[in-house]
């Protein structure tokens, strides 16, 4: 499956690319449940080895409710990326509204032990219009 990454951010020569898809088969609009899957590719364009230690998400729904999600790694992993390497993962996001957005940052550790924050680009969550 080929993924397109329409959303990208570069911080400290680390590129974070995002592709998002609405999942109608996992959504239940009639009871206020919408679900998206997002694919993230992290590319290390720097000249140093880095380890992703934590993630921080800010998820906003169509009514302005904000959820903050912090945790270790991504989908149970804390990948170490040497220069030129990339890491891909897929995760999901449920909302109680048909529209919203996500953005955030990753906390990395450089080989010398110093911390580094890398931005995750803003991306919209939008279900197709439906009639009830």
From TrEMBL:
<dbReference type="Pfam" id="PF04379">
    <property type="entry name" value="DUF525"/>
</dbReference>
<dbReference type="InterPro" id="IPR050718">
    <property type="entry name" value="ApaG-like"/>
</dbReference>
<protein>
    <recommendedName>
        <fullName>Protein ApaG</fullName>
    </recommendedName>
</protein>
<dbReference type="InterPro" id="IPR023065">
    <property type="entry name" value="Uncharacterised_ApaG"/>
</dbReference>
<dbReference type="InterPro" id="IPR007474">
    <property type="entry name" value="ApaG_domain"/>
</dbReference>
<dbReference type="InterPro" id="IPR036767">
    <property type="entry name" value="ApaG_sf"/>
</dbReference>
<feature type="domain" description="ApaG">
    <location>
        <begin position="8"/>
        <end position="132"/>
    </location>
</feature>
């Amino acid at each position: 499956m080929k993924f397109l990454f329409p959303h990208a951010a570069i911080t400290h020569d680390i590129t974070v690319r995002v592709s998002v898809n609405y999942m109608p088969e996992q959504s239940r609009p009639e009871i206020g449940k919408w679900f998206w899957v997002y694919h993230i590719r992290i590319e290390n364009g720097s000249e140093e080895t880095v380890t992703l230690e934590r993630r921080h998400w800010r998820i906003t729904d169509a009514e302005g409710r904000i959820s903050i999600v912090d945790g270790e790694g991504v989908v149970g992993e804390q990948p170490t990326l040497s220069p030129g390497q990339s890491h891909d993962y897929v995760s999901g996001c449920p909302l109680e509204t048909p529209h919203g957005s996500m953005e955030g940052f990753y906390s990395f550790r450089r080989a010398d032990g110093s911390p580094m924050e890398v931005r995750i680009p803003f991306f919209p969550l939008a279900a197709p219009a439906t009639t009830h």
